[in-house]
Amino acid sequence: MKKKVLSVLSYVLVALVASGTTLACALFFFREGTGKLQQVQDLLQERFIEEVDQDALEDAAAQAMVEALGDRWSYYMTAEEYLSYQDTMSNSYVGVGITVQLREDRQGFDILKVEPKGPANEAGVQAGDRLVAVNGTSVLDAQDTSVLDPIKGEEGTTVELTLVRGEEELTLTVERRRFDTQVATYQMLEEQIGLVTILNFDERCAQETIAAVEELLDQGAQALIFDVRYNPGGYKRELVEILDYLLPEGPLFRTVDYQGREEVDESDENFVDVPMAVVMNLHSYSAAEFFAAALSEYEAAFTVGEKTYGKGYFQNTFQLSDGSAVNLSVGKYYTPKGVSLAGVGLTPDVPVEVDEQTAAKIQAGTLDPAEDPQIQAAVNRLKDGK
Fold first, then answer.
1. Contact indicator for 382, 225 with CB cutoff of 8 Å
2. Is 70 exceeded by the pLDDT of residue 3?
3. Closest CA to 328 of 21, 69, 14, 107
């Protein structure tokens, strides 16, 4: 009987200890005046058995909070990522100056393009080479471009690229250097039709695009094609400056911010008076598709290619105290006629689909306009309109 009583008492003691532990946890979670996030942070810092990396916690929490918005255009950047983002938006970066594509057989990366003024070109890298190793580490059997991250680095340092050219394997040492990306390129096609390819609408876009158009007009261009395929968009100010240059007097672009404030940018009476076309695709985002929409609504240009994505929000970037940043959707874009493209996109006047192989060449900038079905569709319609 005594043994049984002791046994019962031991169970009661265990229960009391367990209850005490549970009670302590409950009191910990419900300290007065603290919100859930602070409670979780305190819990991890005070009770987690291992060392806590506070910076990692804050990065993860910030990223999760922004992702919880469910908006693909809003995102968190660490301090390191934000520095890279600033380079991208300025169309200036530290690199070696190559464009690559993962091979279908996973046997490395094909070098599709070498920047003429870049360090890779100076070191002897050629378009058509196959990249098989970086700093002696193989990139064969790669699943994505993350294996090429070691190519990045500080300006003035070097990286070793192992290439296969024909039957020969060679290793070249290439300096990492800062150089500007050419935002707008141009060339004259048949029938005095000028082609302007706009890479993005970030820094120097308006300056380079307007200069390209004026050079083509000076060369006698009778019509213009603007290529904004794979153009991710960019700054509103760059877009508006180009539209003001191209279009006659009237509204160009409308924005409504998170406080309901509307802003309308206007064009003056000066404009470019030649037939125009815009070639676009699913990867024409934001400013790129609104560029096409504005020219279309003014009947200054027809559109060719594929339906655009339909990004109708604009973002502001907010730098945080530790150098990280949040890129946040804060308003909506509208066409000159007040149309939102959000989730809808812009449907081309002349639909032209291309296969995956052709699309890859277009994205890499290696497809000759004479062999480009979408460019040629624009050329043919412009010729018919003469």
1. yes
2. no
3. 69
Contact 326, 332 (CB under 8 A): no
Whether residue 334 contacts residue 340, with contact meaning beta carbons closer than 8 Å, is answered with: yes
Question: Domains in the chain and their CATH numbers?
Answer: 2-52 (no CATH), 92-179 (2.30.42.10), 182-384 (3.90.226.10)
Furthest C-alpha separation in the chain: 112
Residues ≥6 apart with Cβ < 8 Å to 97: 114, 115, 117, 118, 119, 120, 121, 177, 179
Return the pLDDT at 256. Answer: 95
Beta-bridge partner residues of 95: 177
Backbone angles phi, psi at 264, to 5 degrees: -120, 120
Query: Where are the alpha helices (H) located in 79-127, listed in sequence order?
Result: 79-89, 119-123
The rounded distance, in Å, linking the Cα atoms of 281 and 202 is 19
* Beta-bridge partners for 290: none
Question: How many whole angstroms separate alpha carbon 43 and alpha carbon 25?
Answer: 9
pLDDT given at position 8: 37
| Res. 29 pLDDT band, cuts 50 70 90 | very low
Q: What are 223-256's pLDDT values in tens digits?
A: 999 999 999 999 999 999 999 999 999 999 999 9
- Distance of alpha carbon 120 from alpha carbon 176, whole angstroms: 9
CA distances from 51 to 46, 54, 56 (A): 10, 9, 12
Predicted structure pTM score: 0.78
- DSSP three-state, residue 325: strand
- Residue 24 binned pLDDT confidence (cut-offs 50, 70, 90): very low
Mean pLDDT of the chain: 89
Confidence tier at 25 by pLDDT (50, 70, 90): very low
Element at 320 (helix H, strand E): none
Residue 326, number of CB atoms within 10 A of its CB: 19
